[in-house]
């Protein structure tokens, strides 16, 4: 069992939680169409649906809110925000957006044209949706180990350079507007990319005139895992490693609702001044003025403070240790999980845990419902439901991984809460034979269906 360091914070304010009965949860889940996403938060005891925007802000962040300059144009808070991004991520041109997918939309509209191709180290639903809606096809070039939950490969976010070369050769460099990388890789279970591999990937892409853009939403967690796992980096600070991860890339998309410990906000950061000017023009149309991008001044102040806090060694050590502790408890009890533990979540291998539930009945979604029914713990499916349908054929995509993701918000839950989660998941696993059938769609929206779909028990 990994060490569980005392939390490097103390509680100043509490938010009451409501305990429900199993009978109440059964009724609530039926009303939500067997989709935990559609539950009201007041009906969830421990909410691990996402770590995005669900973090607890510090006293320094709350005080920063009071300094927010709400001027429409050229607010002082923008320049505070801009300087924090430049200092800790190293990009010159900083364009605020309301959250990460706002940046994905802008970048896709700037660079993608119909018939183009975007390679990346595994898809993320909103990222791929923006790429496909603008006419591109996504190509997964991640290492094979990323698709094997049992593999202990320390950097499952690495790019298979042979796969990337094949995409460039097959599609032609002119048809590839950019390479899309994530640090860490969410859909693989929060798995990191190594500095060495990211640097080699950028060198290969740049040799063909292809830019590389990095999803940095959890790059601080990636930097911590590099410090622990990649030779030669143990003696470097997390802040130094974060800059090293960003350095070879041409820009980044950021959801500040993750590593930056904020409840809303994000940015698009670029090195090319011409591309930055194009992006600012689109931000004016879709987000707001280029000096606020859909955020209030107080939000930008909170993000700037959160960026500085995010690279504090005590903070990130305790944050990742909490994830590792949950993973160890589940793994030691025989629950099949994605190994090694990632930076922000523990993912349960639902296909292995519920082998008697066919993929067509969505075992990841089925397991998410079972865990909620057990103790009011909410996670999210990361499998075929999240993968959606192929836009050309309309057929379901069947990814290699069929997971239940338990994403832990930062600075929110205590060890007692994490033990409750572990006990609940272990109890479901030990009685898994009682789950005799899965789920099918009762309603299926066209995009990002895992958010709004409704299900019914399979016949």
Shape: globular
Name the strands of the widest sheet in spatial order: 2-8-7-6-5
Number of strands: 14
Strand-residue proportion: 5-15%
Q: How many strands, which pairing sense, and closed or not: the largest β-sheet?
A: 5 strands, mixed
Measured distance between first and last alpha carbons: 41 Å
The averaged pLDDT comes out at 96
What oligomeric assembly is this protein in? single chain
Helices, by number, come to 17
CATH A-level architecture of the largest domain:
3-Layer(aba) Sandwich
Q: Which ranges are low-confidence, i.e. pLDDT below 50, for 5 or more consecutive residues?
A: none
**Assigned CATH superfamily of the largest domain:** Type I PLP-dependent aspartate aminotransferase-like (Major domain)
Query: How many structural units, i.e. domains?
Result: 2
Report the CATH topology name of the largest domain: Aspartate Aminotransferase, domain 2
Which radius of gyration do the C-alpha atoms yield? 21 Å
**Percent of residues in helical segments?**
40-55%
Structural class: alpha/beta
CATH class of the largest domain: Alpha Beta
Keywords: Antibiotic biosynthesis, Lyase, Pyridoxal phosphate
Protein name: Tyrosine phenol-lyase
Family: Belongs to the beta-eliminating lyase family.
EC number: 4.1.99.2
């Amino acid at each position: 069992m990994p060490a569980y360091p005392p939390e490097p914070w103390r509680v100043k304010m509490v938010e009451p939680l409501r305990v429900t009965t199993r009978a109440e949860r059964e009724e609530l889940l039926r009303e939500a169409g067997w989709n935990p996403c559609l539950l009201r938060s007041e009906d969830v005891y421990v909410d691990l649906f996402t770590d995005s925007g669900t973090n607890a802000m510090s006293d320094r962040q709350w005080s920063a809110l009071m300094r927010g300059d709400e001027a429409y144009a050229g607010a002082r808070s923008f320049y505070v925000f801009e300087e924090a991004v430049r200092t800790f991520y190293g990009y010159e041109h900083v364009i605020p957006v309301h959250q990460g997918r706002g940046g994905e939309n802008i970048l896709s509209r700037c660079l993608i044209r119909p018939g183009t191709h975007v390679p990346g180290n595994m898809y993320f639903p909103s990222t791929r949706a923006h790429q496909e809606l603008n006419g591109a096809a996504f190509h997964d070039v991640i290492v094979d180990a990323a698709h094997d939950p049992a593999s202990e490969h320390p950097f499952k976010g690495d790019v298979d350079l042979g796969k990337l070369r094949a995409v460039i050769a097959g599609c032609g460099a002119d048809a590839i507007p950019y390479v899309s990388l994530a640090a860490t890789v969410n859909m693989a279970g929060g798995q990191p990319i190594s500095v060495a591999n990211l640097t080699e990937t950028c060198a290969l892409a740049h040799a063909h005139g292809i830019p590389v853009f990095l999803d940095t939403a959890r790059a601080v967690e990636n930097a911590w895992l590099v410090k622990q796992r990649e030779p030669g980096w143990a003696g470097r600070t997390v802040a130094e490693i974060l800059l090293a991860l960003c350095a070879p890339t041409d820009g980044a998309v950021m959801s500040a609702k993750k590593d930056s410990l904020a409840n809303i906000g994000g940015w698009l950061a670029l090195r090319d001044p011409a591309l930055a000017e194009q992006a600012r023009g689109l931000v004016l149309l879709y987000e707001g003025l280029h000096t606020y991008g859909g955020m209030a001044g107080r939000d930008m102040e909170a993000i700037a403070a959160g960026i500085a806090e995010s690279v504090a060694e005590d903070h990130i050590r305790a944050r990742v240790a909490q994830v590792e502790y949950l993973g160890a408890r589940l793994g030691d009890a025989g629950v099949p999980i994605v190994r090694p533990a990632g930076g922000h979540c523990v993912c349960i291998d639902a296909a292995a845990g519920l082998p008697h539930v066919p993929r067509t009945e969505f075992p990841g979604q089925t397991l998410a419902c079972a865990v909620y029914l057990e103790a009011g713990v909410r996670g999210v499916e990361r499998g075929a439901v999240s993968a959606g349908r192929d836009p050309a054929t309309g057929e379901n995509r069947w990814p290699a991984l069929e997971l239940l993701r338990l994403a832990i918000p930062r600075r929110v839950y205590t060890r007692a809460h994490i033990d409750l989660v572990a006990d609940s998941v272990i109890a479901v696993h030990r009685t898994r034979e009682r789950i005799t059938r899965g789920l099918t769609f009762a309603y299926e929206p066209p995009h990002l269906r895992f958010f709004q779909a409704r299900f019914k028990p399979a016949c």
